[in-house]
Design brief:
Largest sheet: none
Oligomer: single chain
Helix content: over 70%
Structural class: mainly alpha
Shape: globular
Strand content: under 5%
Amino acid sequence: MSNGTSPNLDRLAAQHAQAIISRTTDKKASEVDNTVTKALGVLQENGVYACFLYLRAKEGENGPGVVEKEMLDLLDGLGFGWGKPTGNSLEEVLSYISEKVTVDLERLLLAKETLEQMLIYARYGAKARG
């Protein structure tokens, strides 16, 4: 937001949801839907930090999965200057979330709402694909 304009949050959510769907064509639509739906539930009930923990436990045996990567890209796209984590380890991602994303309550709530919208769109996209 350094240029004085705010990003279109709905468009940002839709773009990253579309990326999840296009990057998971090697998986069954029902698997993608299941992962996204569960991540959405964790995000809504327990918050951003818990959602990243859940995704790493669910998808991250070999590093971050597609959903986590798109969520981080969306956070970077919000324009708050958060950047991205310095690496892909669980510790680096969680440190990024706690030190950048959760510091300011208003920005955290905006980020959470936008992530929720992205996951909702991804869920519908998976259902439409299946």
